[in-house]
Specification:
Its EC number is 5.4.2.-. By secondary structure, this protein is an alpha/beta fold. It has two domains: 181 residues, Phosphoglycerate mutase-like (Rossmann fold, 3-Layer(aba) Sandwich); 47 residues, no CATH class. The protein is built from eight helices and six strands; from the N terminus they run βααβαβαααβαββα. The chain has a six-stranded mixed β-sheet.
Amino acid sequence: MTKTRLYIARHGKTMFNTIGRAQGWSDTPLTAEGERGIHELGIGLHKASIPFKYAASSDSGRTMQTMEIILEELGNPTIPYSRDKRIREWCFGSLDGGYDGDLFQGVLPRTAAFNTGRSYDEVTYPELAASLVEVDTANWAEPWEILSKRIYDGFEAIAQSVEASGGGNAIVVSHGMTIGTFMWLIDRKQEKKAIANGSVTVVTYENGKFFIETIGDMSYRLRGREFLEKNEKEN
């Protein structure tokens, strides 16, 4: 059986990403810059000649828009494609759509997890989830037990589907904090790492376990950017 591998991309840059708002379960479309970045990614993946047999994304508009561009550049629009709400971004509850500065520098530092003077990077994902539940007046934010289970179960279901069909590569589009959380669930020693728009995180799935290969790789986008810029100069 061929090894099962997930290439997990973060969606392209959106309107909310650009103006610094917490997106969560709210949604905004990719900007022109964001679309170009994903065209770069798709071209880079195509140039790498990776044989994708399956595609999956969250059910958020920004990930579906990203996947549409990737599949267009891969020249494989008929690849089997599913959408799974389990690999959505974190829900920020009543703070969803608010400015990042208000959330991460204003509200969250007043919660119990931050009382020790630790920074955002030093607070664990379970503690961060507890902080969101603590400040969410709408009671929409997910407790860590629910949040972590739905993220892991979502990616595992995708991997198991690919494995059941003989293994191979899947292109998956998800969200920054969701991808970071998934990496931490695979390896609790992982520190929080920036997952840039259009970056690729690769994991393999064998014997019921995930193994991390790369996190936040920008090389595919850079390769695609070089190709686009060369074409533009020549034309």
